[in-house]
Design a protein that fits this description.
Elements: E1 5-6, H1 7-15, H2 17-24, H3 35-47, H4 50-55, H5 59-77, H6 87-98, H7 101-115, H8 117-123, E2 133-135, E3 140-142, E4 146-150, E5 153-160, H9 171-188, E6 194-199, E7 204-209, H10 212-229, H11 248-261
Parallel strand pairs: 1-3, 5-6
Antiparallel strand pairs: 2-3, 4-5, 6-7
Helix pairs in contact: 1-2, 1-9, 1-10, 3-5, 3-6, 5-6, 7-8, 9-10
The structure holds iron/sulfur cluster (SF4).
Iron/sulfur cluster binds next to α2 and α11.
C-alpha cells in the first residue's frame, strides 16, 4: 500500500493542493486543540449511536446520555490527538455540544418524518464488516464512517460535523462518497448507486446518487495527487483556507524563500 493515494488526500487536494504536498513531505499539521475541535470529535462519536435516539421514548435524555458517554470516552478514542489535554477544554467542548442538543433532536425528528423510522434506522446502523477499503488496481485506499445496506446495495456513509448546505451535500462530501463507492465496487464486485452524508450537528441525513462525472473527477484528482506525491509543489490557490491551516508555517517559509529569488 506504499504508493497508494488516500481518499483523504483527494479531499485535502480540493481544500488546497499544497496540503497534500506538505503531508507527503512528512510535515505534521500544527493543530490547536480548541473546545470547538473537541466538540466536533464528540459529536462524531455521538452520531455513531443516533439509532438509539431514534428508538428512544425520550430523545432528549437519550442524546444527553450519549453526550455524557462520548465526553468521557473521547480521550481514550482520540488518544494521540488529545494526549495532555486540559480537562477544562473537554468541559467547554461538552457545554458547546449541549447547547446544540435541541437542534440535533429537531433534525433527527425531521429526518424520521421525511424518511420514515425504518429507513433512518437503516442509515444509522453500520454493517458489521471490515470497512477499510483498498484497491490494488487503482492504488487508492479509504474508509467510510459507516458501511450500510440500502435497497439491497452496499452504500458508503460519511459523518460530517460542520455546517450542512441548504440542500444536497457539499461537493467535497460528494466526491469522497464517489471515491469510496469506487473502492467498494472494486472490493465487492457490485455496483454502488448512492452514498449518504450525515450532518451530525443538525441530525440531517442526505442521500446522494453516485454520478459518472464524479467518478471521472475522482480518477483525475487521484492522478494529480500522485504527481504532488512525486514532489511537485503546487501553486497556492487564491481562495486557499490559510487561516485554518496547520501547514501555514511551512507554507510561509517556502514563499519567503521563493520571493528572494523572484
Ligand atoms: S497555508 Fe494556505 S496555501 Fe499553504 S497549505 Fe495551508 S491552505 Fe494551502
Amino acid at each position: 500500500m506504499e504508493d497508494h493515494v488516500r481518499v483523504s488526500d483527494i479531499n485535502n487536494y480540493l481544500k488546497c493542493p499544497r496540503k497534500v504536498y506538505y503531508t507527503y513531505q512528512g510535515h505534521e499539521p500544527i493543530r490547536t486543540v480548541t473546545p470547538s475541535y473537541v466538540a466536533a470529535l464528540i459529536i462524531k462519536e455521538m452520531a455513531q449511536d443516533y439509532a438509539d435516539v431514534v428508538t428512544s421514548e425520550d430523545m432528549g435524555s437519550s442524546l444527553q446520555s450519549l453526550l455524557d458517554i462520548s465526553a468521557q470516552q473521547i480521550t481514550i478514542i482520540y488518544r494521540n490527538e488529545l494526549s495532555d489535554i486540559d480537562p477544562e477544554i473537554i468541559s467547554q467542548a461538552t457545554s458547546e455540544v449541549r447547547s446544540h442538543l435541541d437542534e440535533v433532536m429537531n433534525g433527527i425528528q425531521a429526518s424520521m418524518a421525511a424518511l420514515g423510522v425504518d429507513r433512518l434506522l437503516d442509515i444509522f446502523t453500520s454493517l458489521d464488516v471490515e470497512s477499510i477499503l483498498y484497491s490494488e488496481k487503482l492504488s487508492i485506499s479509504g474508509s467510510p464512517d459507516r458501511l450500510l445496506m440500502l435497497d439491497g446495495c452496499l452504500t458508503p456513509s460519511v459523518i460530517r460535523t460542520g455546517k450542512a448546505p441548504l440542500s444536497g451535500v457539499w461537493k467535497n462530501d460528494r466526491l469522497r462518497l464517489t471515491a469510496l463507492s469506487i473502492l467498494l465496487e472494486d472490493k465487492h464486485d457490485s455496483a454502488v448507486m448512492k452514498g449518504v452524508v450525515e450532518y451530525a450537528r443538525y441530525g440531517i441525513v442526505r442521500e446522494v446518487p453516485i454520478r459518472r462525472a464524479d467518478r471521472r473527477k475522482v480518477l483525475t484528482l487521484a492522478g494529480r495527487v500522485r504527481k504532488i506525491r512525486d514532489g511537485r509543489l503546487p501553486d497556492r490557490p487564491d481562495d486557499a483556507p490559510c487561516d485554518y491551516c496547520g501547514h501555514v508555517e511551512h507554507c510561509q517559509v517556502t514563499q519567503t524563500l521563493a520571493s528572494r529569488f523572484f
